[in-house]
Amino acid sequence: MNDPRYDKLAQLLTSFSTHLKKGERVLIDAQDVPEGIIIALIRAARRRGAIPYVQLLSSTVQREILSGITREQLVFSLKTELIRMKGMQAYIALRGAHNIFEASDVPIDRMNLTARTLRPVQNWRVNHTKWVVLRWPTPGMAQQASMSTEQFEDFYFRVCTLDYSRMIPGMKALKALMERTDKVHILGPGTDLNFSIKGIPAVPCGGEFNIPDGEVFTAPVKESVEGQITFNTTTVYHGTSFENIRLKFSKGRIVEATAAQNVKKLNEILDSDHGARYIGEFALGFNPHILQPMKDILFDEKIAGSFHFTPGQAYEMADNTNRSQVHWDMVNIQRKDYGGGEIRFDGKLIRKDGRFVIPALARLNPEYLLKSSS
Fold it and tell me: What are phi and psi of 294, to 5 degrees?
């Protein structure tokens, strides 16, 4: 018997997230997930008159392919994958991971070559389809979250099926404020950062791009970032874990990057191309269910009271012209239990210790967002 939670999630993904319509083609891109959720998505898409296509992937098989992948393989894959993506009107990705470090021993030059060569497929998907990406709960993710498997599954479905419509008023107010703002100043332990967001659109994310969701993002003017930032959440990128990353900026560029460990690999990633040492995204996170980091960026970047600052590629919908094969969301939590901090827009205090302090944005604080979903 199918888990009824699968049907509820599939309904959310095909309606609220991607707004599937009759005759639209949707690619269901599934890696290490149960067949039940894939079947639920196929049925939900068909009920809306859409045409589902499915791609099944395995992280262990992907690791083997990537370890020895050649440029010839990638060029051929680019041609075929781009043709397929251009034929889709929507894209739903479910990404499970039995081991988040599965790719840790893949040579970084193979990872960089793959990311660089296949970037046009991702760009087309992001800019020309209705898309949503989500993780899938596994025992490995439960371990990362320090929960039992059953407890984590309950948490996962509660987060993913949040009443995202409740975020809309607060997100609209935050978007309007960000688009009126020039100077941003962020203060916190190990952090004193200044930059401009003038003239760059802000994009609300309330269940239409990621599940779980809960952020509004923009990008800094490319060469405006000055100062330093210390990230207080562990981040995993290219299968490697990094803690206490500290970045120092001058004229928008990362001129110094350190971490508690793997400093050489950190700098190798930031040296992948010219754009990797510039910032492509700045976002405020406010999902009320997500309070602790769990080494999974789709969850961690939405943590209530957090912001993320992203070396690499900018989104075209909030474009500061930075281009890179890298897009690495690094997260800082500013709630009191993580050391606190302040964010000011044009000198005005907007958020203190992770809580929005002006009335128009108070509807993004946890007590309002949870009122109808508790």
Answer: -140, 25
